Amino acid sequence: MGKKTLPKPTDSELEILQILWQNGASTVKAVNEKLNEKKETGYTTTLKMLQIMYEKNLVVRDENERSHVYKSAIDKNQIQRVLLDKLLETAFSGSAANLVMQVLGNSKPSKEELKNIKELLDKIERERK
Amino acid sequence: MGKKTLPKPTDSELEILQILWQNGASTVKAVNEKLNEKKETGYTTTLKMLQIMYEKNLVVRDENERSHVYKSAIDKNQIQRVLLDKLLETAFSGSAANLVMQVLGNSKPSKEELKNIKELLDKIERERK
DNA sequence: AACTTACTACGAAACTTTTCGTATGTGGGG
DNA sequence: CCCCACATACGAAAAGTTTCGTAGTAAGTT
Q: What are the Cα distances from residue A85, in Å, to A52, A64, A77, B63?
């Protein structure tokens, strides 16, 4: 209650959130540099994106220094969940099992990862009873 | 070769593809009605979407009857894969295991589904050797 | 103090996606 | 034959997203 539903971030926003999650609080400059490792992006473009995200409360910022420092305002897991639920709904008709099988089929999970997944499955089964 | 990379469908397009996958070939009217079960949508809006999708080769249509009949031109699995890969990349830093665990954690897979997933895991392990 | 550099803020252009009004065509039923 | 119900086509408005030019401001440098 009173909890605002978090908006699905756009693709660009997500790229930036990704950087913030990975690198922690960052200046515009730092974000822009990271962004440029993947694709050329003007400095003011990055700045603008961060400002927009700030207005949407996707990020918070510290204005104490001359160069503002931004960091993600939302949990990586929360967003993952929002996006995953949406994909599940829109592309998999809600069937989590289908989705899981597609991922496992396409990707090459490591031995370690397989083990973790199995453990989780066991845990779910145990809790089910 | 000569194979066009499939474009990522937009959200609206995906909603419509969903309907076509579920119901098979459909008239605009039928699609529109389904769409309206979820959210109010004008008839011409749906028509336009289908026309756009037709131009993008996301759907094919049979014009023999007065009411054209549309059906998806692409495989559900293909699209699922495109979207999943993208999500994996943009929101999960490529970690399939993380993604899987999120899904399994959030959703309530049935006993049957769990079994299927386990079998798939076993199969992957066996093939790994 | 004037000059340079490194920022932020703002606004608008360029694109993309979504929605819908209007025009137009066609095949019966009266 | 004429109208009406029901389609499609088209174009453009509306809404959302992304990019960037320009202006302004504050902090050091000479």
A: 25, 37, 12, 36
Partner-chain residue, chosen from B90, B91, B107, that has the shortest CB–CB distance to A96: B107
What does the DSSP assignment read for A65-126?
A: SSS-EEEESS-HHHHHHHHHHHHHHHHSTT-HHHHHHHHHHHS---HHHHHHHHHHHHHHHH
Residues of chain B with Cβ-Cβ distance to A113 below 8 Å are 95-97
Tokens matching residue B50 = 């289908």
Measured in whole angstroms, how far is the alpha carbon of residue A118 from the centre of its chain? 24
Closest protein residue to D21 (Cα–C1'): A44
- Do B101 and A116 meet the contact criterion of CB atoms below 8 Å apart? yes
> What backbone torsions phi and psi does residue B73 show, to the nearest 5 degrees?
-95, -10
Give backbone dihedrals phi and psi of B89, rounded to 5 degrees, phi first: -65, -50
What pTM was computed for the model?
0.87
Rounded Cα distance between A95 and B72, Å, is 20
pLDDT tens for each residue of B80-115? 988 998 898 888 888 888 899 888 887 778 888 888
